[in-house]
Amino acid sequence: MRTLALAALMATTAPAAFAQTAAAVETADLMEQVGYGHPSDASGIADLQPIQIAGPAMPTDLTPEGVAAADTYLWLEDVNADRSMDWVRAQNAQAHDALETDPRFETFRDQAYGILSATDRIALPHMQDGMVFNFWQDDDHPKGLWRRASPDSYRAGAPNWETVLDIGALAQAEGRDWVFKGADCYGPVERLCLIALSDGGGDAVEVREYDTHARAFVEGGFSLPMGKHRYDWLDENTLLVATDFGEVDGQPSLTESGYPYIVRALSRGQTLAEAVTVFSGEQGDGGYGVNPTVTRGAEGQVEAVLINRPLDTFRSETYAVIDDEPVRLTLPERASVWGTQGNTLIFSLEEPWTYRTQTYQTGALMGVGLDLLVPMDPSTALISNAAPLIFQPNDRQSIEAVRITRNRVVVAMFDNVVGQLRVFNNRGEWGWPETVVTVPDNSTVALVDTGRSSNQIYYSVEGFLTPTTLMTADVAAGGDQRRADESRTLDLGQVVAQMPARFDASRDVVEQFEARSSDGTMIPYFLVRPRDMPTDGSTGTILYGYGGFLISKPADYIPEMGRLWLENGGVFVIANIRGGGEFGPAWHQAALRENRQRAFDDFAAVAEDLIARGVTSPEHLGIYGRSNGGVLTSVSVTQRPDLFNAAVIESPLIDMLRYPYMPAGASWIGEYGDPRVPEDAAFIARYSAYQNVRPGVADFPRVYITTNTHDDRVHPGHARKFAARLAEYGYDPIYFEDTAGGHSYDADPVANARRWARHYVYFAQQLMD
């Protein structure tokens, strides 16, 4: 019988000794009480210097050299080394025996593949060149077809599809494992496109110019070698490109994360070496690389040439290229730029910002003239009566996506994690009048496609138990309001297509609850359960969480989960913990760096609430997280193994004391802190699961760890090393490493079906058998 033996657990896991500065005493006392809690005063962290931390895996020396020297599984970071791959093959064989020989596996695989390859899926549209474009994978074309149809046939529900590019045929002809990663087309005609192709599904792509009319690659056209590029069309014969230009002025042209920091103008026929530098950041820049963007108006005219220079994961500088020179705009470092509408820059704030003597709050959506954002002498400053504030969310709202149409600004947002769609019209000094577009209650709304040449948009609505419906609307219908206070609600949507139900939802119900976290903050979560669920704690329950990078986790329709889990009587829960974007930037920033423990405490609070309500019990409660969710799940089973009997830890970050050394880890320092800095290493060491896991913990769950050899976003070394350490301590983990698909798992629906089958076989074994 698993019990909530927190006090006994913490007696074996509390750190042994810390430097007892005045600022550290309160923190050390709190840690002694709850094991791995977070400090009530973050300023005390800077003075907290670890001398020795109990536990065989925790280095006594937290310098980078000390951490590496203490890492007995460092060799598993060598991705393709023979020793590493021999270990992977041995683990995969054991995973096959544990999961794929289960009699449920083939049933689950068939069901998942039927969903992933169904021909009655919604073909999501992209309006381009007067046609509707779509990328499609099915049983006959697992690599996919890039295709197009006339708008009339598409809206009539009988699209006359014409293949533009067959990715499978291209891969076979060239002997490459090509995965389609999208197309960037030159407007307004959008005939010429830059096709991005990944070999195996990783983030790195090869780029080639393609003529959609001739349906052929352009001979001698633009091309970029395999890499993590950033690019946009300046004109038909010029690209703005940020990529690996080799050594420049004696140093690499990529940051330590492997992303570019130099932008050059590449003319047709030039080599990368001949391209002219437009902008250069610094080799020490963080984030995901410098990014050039050319915004265009309704007729295809250039409105602005913008360059985003990231300083770290979330702070950046924004430049406009004016008279061939980059000029830094007076935007705050924490802001998201969505585009332009004429001369107006549309952006949202992730920190308070004072503009023209007035301070606008975090989360606000703004529209300000570009010429008003250029530094200038106060004596010659421009004057404008145009209202800069488009929309200010309240503390339970957040902006999820913003798109700009011909003369409207469209916003998909959440109100208490429930979807809304709002449209704003720029009326200058009269403000930004709002139209609320009616959407179904308790649904998630996503913007699918918009274009600058019209006000027609496509969007989707869905819910946990409600299949996706594709809608379209003319967001300018109803005419112009005069003033910002003339808000109205209109039913503008028309149904274009509906996904058939992929599972029987008639026996289930969705509820939303809140759990009280360790500091008193109320954490919302969604519960999807059988209507007749007993409240004796016996129901197998999967608790999913993410809690990072300002990413929200709303009520999406997840057909694989519904078919393979809900139909078999399981419960599914999403915890909207801090670190995510459900309530805007403040909700995200509450769990950054030294406050990361808040996300883990939030997750544990939801688990305890589920147990207290009788939904489930530790014997029947499992957790699932991937990528950043791998930090969450690995820490959760390390700090609170008494709460869980299963964990799927997928494509994870885990070794947080070495993550900057594993590509592309250094780009996330703004989220987690930098373990190469002693003060940051101190607070990271308190939770990093790879170092904090200990032998001899009663009821430690048998976890399932899975990743991908080709994952060039989150290094497979994290997953490998954690599995090896758990095995060393006798916890018998299951480990599987796929060899195709990259971080996104978008290479092949056949492999993806097997992936989902393994997940749910494991959960059934641990939580239902």
Description of the structure:
The longest helix is centred in the N-terminal third of the chain and has 19 residues, at 82-100. The protein has 769 residues and is an alpha+beta fold. The strands form eleven sheets. It has an eight-stranded mixed sheet with strand order 37-38-40-39-41-42-43-44, sandwiched between helices. It is globular, with a radius of gyration of 26 Å. 21% of the residues lie in helices and 31% in strands. Helix 5 (104-116) crosses helix 16 (749-767). It has 16 helices and 44 strands. Mean pLDDT is 92; it is low at 3-53. A hairpin with a 5-residue loop joins strand 18 (291-296) and strand 19 (302-310).
Protein topology:
Blueprint: H1 6-13, E1 17-18, H2 22-34, E2 50-52, H3 64-69, H4 82-100, H5 104-116, E3 126-128, E4 131-136, E5 145-149, H6 151-155, E6 162-166, H7 167-174, E7 178-185, E8 192-199, E9 205-211, E10 216-217, E11 223-227, E12 230-235, E13 238-242, E14 247-248, E15 251-252, E16 262-267, E17 276-280, E18 291-296, E19 302-310, E20 316-322, E21 325-328, E22 335-341, E23 344-349, E24 353-355, E25 358-360, E26 365-369, E27 389-391, E28 397-404, E29 409-415, E30 418-424, E31 434-437, E32 444-450, E33 456-463, E34 466-474, E35 488-490, E36 494-498, E37 508-516, E38 522-530, E39 541-544, H8 559-564, E40 571-575, H9 585-589, H10 597-612, E41 621-626, H11 628-639, E42 646-650, H12 669-672, H13 678-685, H14 689-692, E43 704-708, H15 717-728, E44 734-738, H16 749-767
Parallel strand pairs: 31-35, 39-40, 39-41, 41-42, 42-43, 43-44
Antiparallel strand pairs: 1-2, 3-4, 4-5, 5-6, 7-8, 8-9, 9-10, 9-11, 12-13, 13-16, 14-15, 16-17, 18-19, 19-20, 20-21, 22-23, 23-26, 24-25, 26-27, 28-29, 29-30, 30-31, 32-33, 33-34, 34-36, 37-38, 38-40
Helix pairs in contact: 5-16
